Amino acid sequence: MGKQLRSFVAAAALAVSATAGASATAAPWPVRPITIVVPYAPGGNTDLMARLIGERLAKAFQSPVVVDNKAGAAGLIAAEFVARSPADGYTLFMGTLTQISTAPFTNKIRYDPVKDFVPIANVGGNPFVITVNARVPARDVQELVAYAKRNPGKLNMGNAGVGGLTHLSGLVFAKYAGIDVVEVPYKGASLALGDVVAGQIDMYSGNLSEVVPYAADARVRLLGVSSKNRVKQLPAVPALAESLPGIPVVETWNGLLGPAGMPADVVDKISAAVLAAQADPAFRKKLEDVGITPLPEAKEQFAERIQRDIAAWKPVIEMAGIRPE
After folding, report:
1. Which CA distances in Å does 154 have to 6, 70, 122, 147, 188?
2. Domain check: are 186 and 92 in the same one?
3. Do 68 and 146 share a domain, yes or no?
4. Which partner from 74, 167, 191, 257 sits 20 to 30 angstroms from 210, CA to CA?
């Protein structure tokens, strides 16, 4: 091959490479609406955070952001949907610890929580609150435990889906309290909490942000929080550990993830937008006012949290006697 021909081939190859690289990194995004898939029914804790962060993403990218609620199976239906969606940055997942960190130990899932998702940014989290209907003859955790022990199997406890944290946190409480309760699964947190308020079920272990609005409601009583210490939103409500020493702390997170393989620059743009929102005192106040603790974690810190939680929850779930099904 002559010198002139070799030069032409090399130049052509370089041009093709440069063009391919440019198209891969400079593709405009977004050019159509972004969808945030929520694994629970409207009105719950995760739904609220998705809508709050969706508003900020819409402003940051000048693009519509749609919240799509796909409730059922403790959020696993939504998780699988996102895991199988195109990795183009237009389908995001407002995931929780349930679908990502505990699902492998509670359900036979058809996705890999680590390999099928890319963590983008964490948004917020909170502990859980043992909430009872006012007709239950208990004004604190000790009275609730004593009543349940005198009446084994009489109390029922709602949850937002089998294997979810409203379910697991309730099971942990019952296990450490040594009581027997009947589990009643729902397809969303708002449905379960609504039935506690209405007196259709006796109790529910709900997200702090869900039950804070009912702190002064005479129809229910908030008896104990699953955090290590009391929380500022409910200073009069004891931590469960005050009555049940040694009970594990149960706290969740809600964060944005996408299908594995998303363009790195898109992941970075979304992550930066979420962190920018978290840095805004007005946004943080919106979260805190409804019982959500802001968790401003970029993709690396978020990924580390997920790995820690997977390791921490396995023995807790085994202790509760739950097997994948």
Report:
1. 85, 32, 39, 10, 23
2. no
3. no
4. 257
